[in-house]
Amino acid sequence: MKFNYAAPVTLEELSELKKGGGKLFSGGTDLFVKMRAGVLKPDLVVDTKKVETPKLECDKGLRIYMNTTYTDILKSGCARKYSLLMKILLEVGSPQIRNRGTPVGNLGNASPAGDFLLSTYVYDSKVIVGPSMREVPVKNFVKGPGKVDLSDEEFIYAVILEPLEGYTTYYEKVGRRNSMVISIASIAVALKIESGVIEDARIAYGSVGPTVVRFTDLEEKLIGERPKKELFESLAMEYSDRVKPITDVRASAEYRKKLTGNLLIKAYLNMNL
Amino acid sequence: MRVIGKRVRRIDAIEKAFGKAKFTNDLSFPRMLHAAVVYPGVAHGVLRSLDVSEALKAPGVVAIATYKNVPNNEMGIVTKDMHVLVPVGGKIRFEADPIAIIAAETREAAEEATSLVNFDVEELQPVLTIDEALRDDPIVNGERNVAFQRKIRRGDIEKGFQESDLILEMDFETGYQEHAYLEPQSIIALWDGDNLTIYGSMQCPFYVHNDVAEVLKLPLNRVTVIQMETGGGFGGKEDVPSYIAVKAALLSYLTKRPVKLVYNRDMDFRETSKRHPSKSHYKVGFTKDGKIKAVKAAVYLDMGAYSTLTPIVMYRSLTHAASAYDVENIFVDVYGVYTNKVPTGAFRGFGSPQVLFAMERVMDEAAKRLGMDPWEIRYKNALEIGKATATGHVLEESVGAKETLEIVREISDYERLKEEVRKFNEGNKYKKRGLGWAHTIYGVSLGAAGQPLDASSGEVHVKMDGTVLVMIGGTEMGQGAKTVMALIVSEILGVDVDNVRVMQPNTSIVQDSGPTVASRTTVFSGNAIRIAAERIRDNIIEYLKSKGVEDIKIENGYWIADGKEIPFSEIAREANAANVKLAEMGWFSTPKLNFDFETGTGEAYVSYTFSTQLSLVEVDLLTGKVELKEAWVSHDIGKVLNPVGAEGQVEGGVVQGMGYAISEEIKHDENGRMLTTNFNNYIVPTIRDIPRVHVKFAESPFSKGPFGAKGLGEPSLMSSPPSIANAVTDALGILINRLPITPEEVLLKL
Asked: Which of A198, B152, B252, B491 is 20 to 30 Å from the Cα of B660, by its Cα?
């Protein structure tokens, strides 16, 4: 396997190299796996780590920049209030992978099983696309498995997560083991309850469709309701019917459909509403 | 005992923990080439043409070997049913059946050239399951797909069923298991025109020695095999390193340059052996008070494209088919079946986990039907001195079977535990817990079917500074063999454990000692070393007595001669100066076992390890996930020589057995190509999956074992899968008769 390597130091150089067909990487935890498996055979790989960018900013939402690793976030004090994100990041791979892998890379990879990607849907995140620094909501940014809204010269500069204040959250990733595993299905839920009534509901699933899925019409059915088990049980059935998962080496579509509903019931039971 | 049975740190711990130990891939030689293997990627077909001319022109490529270059292209352990390299006109029988091997200046150059080898395959319908194979259309190999059979015919099976009050008939299935050793297959071969030297990761240097000499038609005294530090074996490095070594050796033979062949994980998954998938049918008769009257079983093992070790694996399936119980009437058939998949072979347990799982599930179902506790039905049928195993081997000593059952019942506080589980299940709608027992037997060493290999050599050299060099034919692959050897020498000679060095086995120094398999190293290499060390001790005592010393005591690190403490180093220096013989060889073999292969009856093994496990599982009814939360285990391994190592073996065995039971699964596509060729989709447990394991040994000494020891390497795994399956059945009330227990299967069955 022979290929060229470039390590730009400015965003302009980075953009030029990407325009010329370079594949970007920071930790390489996705790119090199694909290259080793022969899925990608780039002529040029572009290491983004020499580009100086901030790590994290917490004042206006949580801004996560390119080259910021999962470990950077987990160790940072100011990100701690994003408790759902913290739960999700702790389930990413292993300590070694979290030391190298980056949320921005996970977003760019746009796998429906992406752990960080799941969180961005619940935090109503926006993607800052360089070099123009245009902002795109994540749900518009991700177009399908491995497909994102980036032109040849564009790259992900940062992602902004809006805080969830006063929300109760739940996260679960189902895999055949408890770490170092790609999810068979995953769920992230955030509910805001005021005076016993649901005011806002965000329910996102990973690995049960071509991208992370949220069905806002189903979420709306919860708004204004009291969190009762029957309500979640019937909603679980609707989610189960609605999702269109695939059968792959990890599990069958039938199992994933059943899990989809069951995970919502588990979320309800574990949130102690 | 000074060091035997004491908690001692393993002698190779520091060098391994700090990365100093030398593995094959750490070695390099001047002018060394790197090899790559060309696979057809087709599961079944006839190789019609093969053209390497384009690949030979690729930059860096030095040589390419095809069938035309192999001096003796026929291989096979029991039958010669495979090729080193598939010839043109010959059959390809699985996707990774090698057709050519390439040597190049770099690994990358060799790997890139593999895609430049041109070949045509006339594809045939692949045979992918045991059921398909039984139809014999098409034939995979030889004359029939069911190529081997072994049987037990003991007692009167029909009379046994007539005397039974309860007859259970059950079907079972088990899947593959990959060894998942940390270090993949690795070999370096150096042919200098006269002599061939092989360095490699392996369990059985003497197998490699014989196989390489046979393929290259070289005399054995011109071939030296040196085992390097080996990063795990679990059976996967029993015969397989021979197949890797012949490839590297052939390329070295053709180029007269050193050749390194290190497999990547994908190659290792696709080409090298696995645990046999199985299907079995059991019919077992019980009296109403739970006594087993008759066991009838038909067991099919999927041996893949080539038979390799299967006929020997089948011997173990056969002899362990009735588990650890006293049964008079037994009728067992075990069949080996060819399919167009990776050849299966040795894996920790060697054909016994499949049948122990089946029989232990039958025991639980019988207990349920008869209203007995699963512990009680096992205790009632457990073996004791004077009773006979499934093959009719009357046990004369070292039977701690019942003791292991008693220990586990006690350390788990079973009655209280049952009550806790009952309460948990009452209070939880979506999570259920269950308890499952397993009580198993394991024949130590190769047994009657492997007796020609069942002898071992060991040499002990005491140097004049009092340090000791030990040479054995058994290998250290992570299981702790070196530490056990050092403990034995230390105990006998009074030398500090730290002053004993155990060398890597070298076939030109040590006589053929058989394979490092079958949980035999402690007994065989251990006894050989014991004999050698005792001889040296006696030589020194004789010398001291000749000098007029009357009272001699041996302590740890020094000797006491007539009340005077003398460091061992000083004793060694003095004895050496007096020309005392300080180098001895020990040779150990066991008396011939009487076994009738026609009826499958007689003395199957020299001794047996007995094991009991109780598992506590929790099943998530919303995801179907099974979690092994806690396990209580007891093994009768005779005298425990190294408690730290023994406990580690048990913990590792429980976890590897758990992987087999609940998470590990090999899948193929409809054309017979493996889909799970890496650890992202072949799921072995991680540190976050492992349960609490409580271990307490029963020590029923074996008179022929060193200090009374038996074997533990394999039995530590076998109690785990059935006890987990029984626990899941207990938790859910659904029958778990298939391994692995996937969350998918559990959820869809609920």
From this structure: B152
